[in-house]
Amino acid sequence: MAFDGFFCAAAARELNRWSGARVEKIFQSSQTCFFFALYKDGEHVNLVISASASRPMLAVTAGSVARPETPTPQCMLYRKHLQNARLAAAEWVENERIVRFAFDSADEMGYIRRKYIFAEMMGKYSNIILTDGDLRILSAASLSDITGSVRQIMVGLKYEQPPKQDKISAPGISEPEFYSLCAEKRGARISDFLLRTFLAFSPLTARELAFRAAGDVDAPLDEASEKALYPVFREFINAIERGDHAPSAVFDEKGDGIEYSFTELRQYSAPLVQKRYETLSAMQQDYFGRREEAVNISRYSHLLTQTVNTDLARARKKLSLLKTELSECAAMEEYRVKGDVITANIYRMKQGDETLTAFDYESGAEMTVALEKNLAPAKNAQKYYKKYAKLKRASVSLAEQIQKTEARCDYLEGVLGFIERAASPAELAEIRQELAEGGFISEKREPGAKKKSPAAKPLSFTTTDGLTVRVGRNNRQNDALTASASRNDLWFHIKGFHGSHVVLTVGDTEPTDRDYTESAMLAAYYSEKRGSDNVGVDYTRVRCLKKPNGSAPGFVTYEKYYTAVVNARNPFEKN
Asked: Whole-angstrom Cα distance, residue 117 to residue 120?
């Protein structure tokens, strides 16, 4: 893992500058993640200690953090011992993947007592352990089994470090000793030699030194590579001891994190992109923030998509049944004609007749009408007229229901598109709120909470010729964007498909052809036709738009418009 012993040394050195800071608040977001709100010299930060295997972090952040409504018993214990304490030091436990945080806090009698937090960054074996000044364990994120024989982590026992490995400490090795060790391992890969011989190395840092020395992460250890390796090895150790770090992270073309480290990663090249950071904290926030955001987007979008698809399937089934019922209403004219034939020939009929064969003046043909022999001729005619009236009323009602259900299906299909194109959890949260307001999902609110929050800001671009064009990211933003636009602004939307509202702010100027083209391309790009060629986009002045009363969010009508054909690409995105 990237979070090796050297990474812990770099993190401890960086965090130690906050020694002397006061702990104002403590929050726990998960079993293995704590936030300590620190204050020092007029500056407020959050110390993040996360021993999660998927999101390990030892960093300070300046933004707000998630605060669970109800603190856990473990969080309350931390508050009891460390609330208003002073961070005395952040220290690396040499050659281990452990950072020890020392705190000075007052006990019940007002005496200052030392407390420790051991952040063990060991992948799936990671742990956060709170001890008193005598290293007696007060709390641990993960307690050991009482039958364990290697290392006991239980409340009340004394804290012990993990068992020592049969390796050598890299900082204390001399040049002759280094070459002697190399001679014993010749033929092995350089990375394997470093990893299996020295403490605090991870596969990543071992491969990095192999690449720096031999230009290949899989280079073998021989006489030539030994001579190239030692200067690289010594400079690497010296840089760590000096605190000369170069926090870096590597991302693929999609922006997904590949690797991160406290040092430059020269082993990676194009098409992968390496990003440099001022601090380890900034690097960890960006790297794990992107990963966490991607996970949240995937999780939230899946839940929303599932909810919308369920409702959409129900609406489509209802639409099919309504259309079937409406098709059955097509026989209503037949009942009216039969009633007319009976009325026109009532003088020829008598009660008890079972059929009437007579001439239909509308079709010009002879027809036979079934009768109920227990009913008088006039009653038989009324029976047919009643069936006709009932079906006529039903056809009107069914047509209205079909129209509403089709609008519902159309709206939900559009929402699915917005969910698919959402680029952040905040966008998905706004879509969820929109669905809750529309009654598609239930949402519990705290007493006194606002029922409706204002729509977030839409995307904003500047055309090549300097005009502002804005793009709605969901239906709420579409409504807000169109409502706030000037009557003379230009409105764009994909033709015949679901997509975002795009508004080009023109003011008193006349846009150039390039302004029109770039705005139309944005409307095509932020639609379900993204990536297609020769897509039709309607555009008109905002004053030509109408929003019918009671219509779904994001729905407008227009009659006067023009259509442009463009490629559904983002004109402002570099290829």
From this structure: 9
